[in-house]
Amino acid sequence: MQERGTFGRLGFVLAAAGSAIGLGNIWKFPYITYANEGGTFVLIYLVAIVAFGAPIMFAEILIGRNTTQSPVSAFSALSSSLQKSKAWVLTGWLGIAAGFVILSYYSVVAGWTIYYFGKCMTWSFNGFGPEQAANLGKDFGAFLGNGPLQILFHALFMGATMGVVILGVKGGIERSTKILMPVLFSILVLLCGTSIFTPGFGDAIGFLFHIGPLSADAILEAVGHAFFTLSLGMGAMITYGSYVSKKDSILKASFQVCLLDTVIAIMACVIMFSIIFSVPEAERATTFSKSATILFTTLPRMFYELPGGAILSPIFYLLVGFAALSSTISLMEVVVAYFIDEKGWARKKATLLVGGGIFLFGIPSALSLGASEFFSNAKILGDKSTGIFETMDYLASNWLLPVGGLLTALFVGWALPNAFTQAELEEGHGPFPYHAAWKFLLRFICPIGILCVIWNVA
Ligand code: TRP
Q1: What atom of ligand 1 comes closest to residue 19's alpha carbon?
Q2: Is the entire prediction scored with pTM above 0.90?
Q3: In the chain, how many domains are there?
Q4: In what helix (H) or strand (E) does residue 7 lie, and over which residues does it extend?
Q5: Which residues constitute the domain of residue 370?
């Protein structure tokens, strides 16, 4: 086996936050919140973060740090040393599959941020007026329909991810997130501050926090997104946990990651909805589709009205690209670490083969937003999703991650003895008086909650 290396204290929080904070917060959360009418959806999401997200995050990091292994080896090592069923290793396998599937379409969206970086540069130099604003939606549609461009940017992003993963944990992952996350956060704070002065700000806040009816499907989506946004349910945090030092507190780090992730998601919504609600209601439906595009069809409006916006807008898309990169790294690292730990491959070989495979697997997703009639309209799962891109996202966020989270909760809740989990959580932290409450969540509340959700929809 190769030398594994460990994160420094801040390095871990930043790398884990880097994994958690990504397109899930800035691109996906605002658009699914918009599509699900805000309010209640946000509330369910927040409940899911506290009741399922945080407890499962402790569980995953605990498994990783205790075993210093990636998911498949971690589950098999723990189940054999504690004489539990070998079948738990399936959880690890499911995670590898989820990583493969998620990265394949995530990288497509991540590629859009690079393209929009370039586009904003053009606007900044050539001017952005009412005509450009009116054409934002149309332009974006044309870009989605351009197959070669979609594949090109997907390829660029996969290449960048592979470049970092090849450098390994310390060299690549820790160093890059340390600088980029604080800068991204600062720009978001600035935009949030600006949004207070937009006419739509009040309505945006109202929309985010009103209570109304919600469908079972929307509840599933909120819970699934809680897993997605915290990078849970597929062993990413097990893998990162395996690089955490015994001197660090798992609890404190997890809490910080959950908090940062949630704050950034809500900030992204405030910014986006302030712009959306500043447009008169009659025009809103034609200006902003309730779809995956709002990050690219709303924000430029705000930027180019801001003093200094011409400078900020390209920087913003670049930073979103970096936030996405720190997430794609973690997705790829799960799959790569498997081949390193289990198959004894060299890091370089594992990265090249895994990255190449995921790139190819992502091509149908890249072409399924208009470029290819066939991929765009495919209904593999019946009416649940249209097109390969949507189907992959539906499968991963609504099934693979919740099921992975369920199995992890059951494993740590029931299969790992109390003395064992308590000792591991207290190592590097000191006494943890809520151990019993946490176990109760893992044993009963998480499994029942997740099962109800799955039951409702299946
Ligand atoms: N959490 C990231 C986001 O919100 C995406 C992500 C990275 C992820 N690694 C993951 C999702 C592992 C699920 C599992 O953008």
Answers
A1: 7
A2: yes
A3: 1
A4: none
A5: 9-457
